[in-house]
Write a structure and sequence with these properties.
14 helices; 10-stranded mixed beta sheet; 5-stranded parallel beta sheet; single chain; binds xanthosine-5'-monophosphate; alpha/beta
Length: about 525
């Protein structure tokens, strides 16, 4: 095993929405982390390889008796440092004979934490100091239950007004518990606390860096692929683009990419992809111009799910045809990233709280019998982006908003027509250009225009216009599972609307979508 993975932190997931955030924070500290479901098979080899274990928070209550998720006993039989966060802390308390009190009243938001005892975990970490040299931290809480009696061998290390046992430790055993959430940025010293745990208490070195990850992957890809050829479905999205750049570095002309232009891409997208990868980087890219094939297959189809299926199926047909033309391919590369792996693991055990079933363009045609290369399988999106930058991909491509596999096909409501796609492309390009110009692009997680196939009246100059409607959508979100409409300034919306109506004669009205997810979704279909 390479040096990169020789020290790792295991995150035991009790179902918190912040579990992935904990794993990312640990990696930001330069240490590899891996998420395991609390009820996954946890064997001795997994634990003996770990340098530390973190228990996440979770939606359940340890007071629920047999139904409550429990910490596998085996974890305490090794001398590995342990940190429990929120539910994780309560589960530790329960395991060692402490008492947890259930409450339906939640404490949510900022709290001022006072350190009440020395501990390795909070040593040197403080936001404020009183004249009497007491130390305080601004932390973020989100809990109902709390520990009300400390287990034997543990001591309270920090308190808040409403939660007297807000942190505890057993320094001898290197077991720590925090009622608040160090993984969220609202806890100002959260990263320093996790650093104390990961780097000082678990004694991990800072080895998980972009350069090291790239070098490791290049070696692994070369070892796996040998002299064989690799095929990659390039979509122009961040993940497949980073795979292309990485494989190009690892195996050069043994890589061939297939880029399917389905006629549902954004303005100039096809040309941009060809220019960046084929012209600038010298990667072999086959561009399949299949616009008509997709539009024909979609003719007369209004139902969003049917459209998705047709687009997915047509993609596979085109992709297979092109791959057969290339011939002599042994491996298929995919831009699978770590959250996909976690989600499908969750889906297998039926434990995942929300499972996305989106069709991803680039999906594996199973009958092709190709072996898989998935060099991003261990990485979070932000790590993929960092690697993309290190590999020399331009910033505007690496930080591009996500684009759904079915593309404009789900942003043209009802039947898809070329005429509609052309109008939408122009409107979308104006919106995105103005977002960049005003500095709002980076402040939103996803923004796009939607084509509404309804006609509305307008007056342009002296003429009456009876044309189509464009809706603008811009959202802020962390995980795309929940989202809120971005509070774009009125001036900006007005500029975008004026430009769209003036520059695109087929549009007479522009609206801004202010719905949240839930109950709405981000896409309109
Ligand atoms: P929704 O509309 O479900 O979108 O709130 C959440 C995120 O998923 C993207 N999305 C898709 N991605 N194929 C994809 O590859 C799809 O069919 C699809 N539908 C939605 C959407 O753009 C957003 O980022």
């Amino acid at each position: 095993m390479s040096n990169l993975f020789s020290q790792k932190i295991i995150i035991l997931d009790f179902g918190s929405q912040y579990t992935q955030l904990i794993a990312r924070r640990v990696r930001e500290l330069g240490v590899y982390s891996e998420i395991k479901a609390w009820d996954a098979r946890i064997d001795a080899s997994l634990i003996s390889d770990a340098s530390g274990i973190i228990f996440s928070g979770g939606p359940e209550s340890v007071t629920d008796g047999a139904n409550a998720p429990k910490i596998p006993e085996i974890l305490f039989s090794y001398k590995i440092p342990i940190l429990g966060i929120c539910y994780g802390m309560q589960a530790i308390a329960k395991f060692f004979g402490g008492e947890v009190q259930s409450s339906s009243k939640r404490e949510f938001g900022y709290a001022r934490l006072k350190k009440v005892n020395e501990s390795l975990l909070l040593e040197g970490v403080a936001d404020h100091r009183s004249e009497g040299n007491e130390e305080f931290l601004d932390v973020w809480m989100s809990h109902g239950d709390k520990v009300v009696r400390i287990p034997e061998g543990f001591s309270c290390i920090a308190s808040t007004k409403s939660c007297p046992i807000a942190a505890f430790s057993n320094e001898q055993k290197s077991i720590y518990g925090l009622q608040f959430h160090p993984e969220v940025t609202h806890t100002k010293q959260g990263s320093s606390i996790l650093k104390r745990f990961v780097r000082d208490i678990c004694e991990c070195d800072e080895v998980w860096t972009s350069d090291a990850i790239i070098e490791d992957q290049i070696n692994r890809v070369r070892e796996l692929v040998g002299a064989e050829s690799v095929l990659l479905g390039l979509s122009g999205g961040v993940d497949s683009s980073v795979v292309a750049a990485l494989l190009n570095k690892a195996i050069g002309n043994k890589l061939t990419c297939v880029f399917v232009d389905n006629g549902l891409l954004r303005k100039d997208e096809g040309d941009m992809v060809m220019q960046m990868f084929a012209d600038n980087m010298g990667i072999k890219v086959v561009r399949a111009n299949a616009q008509e094939e997709f539009l024909e297959a979609l003719e007369g189809v209004k139902d969003p799910e049917k459209k998705r299926k047709i687009i997915g199926q047509t993609f596979i047909e085109v992709f297979e045809r092109e791959s057969k033309n290339i011939g002599d391919i042994e491996f298929l590369a995919q831009g699978t990233i770590y959250p996909d792996v976690i989600e499908s693991a969750g889906a297998e055990t039926g434990k995942a709280h929300v499972i996305k079933s989106h069709h991803n363009v680039g999906g594996l045609p199973s009958e092709m019998k190709l072996r898989l290369v998935e060099p991003l399988k261990e990485l979070f999106k932000d790590e993929v982006r960092k690697i993309g930058l290190t590999l020399g991909l331009p910033k505007q491509m690496v930080f591009r908003h996500p684009f759904p596999g079915p593309g404009l096909g789900v942003r043209i409501l009802g039947e898809v027509k070329k005429e509609y796609a052309d109008i939408l492309r122009e409107a979308d390009a104006i919106f995105i250009e103005e977002l960049h110009r005003s500095g709002w692009y980076e402040k939103t997680s996803q923004a796009f225009a939607v084509f509404l196939p309804v006609k509305s009246v307008g007056v342009v100059g002296d003429a009456r216009r009876y044309e189509w409607v464009i809706a603008l959508r811009a959202v802020e979100t962390i995980d795309f599972m929940t989202a809120r409409s971005a509070p774009l300034p009125h001036d900006l919306l007005e500029t975008v609307s004026n430009r769209i109506i003036n520059e695109i004669s087929e549009v007479s009205r522009v609206t801004y979508d202010i719905s949240s997810k839930p109950p709405s979704t981000i896409e309109w279909e």
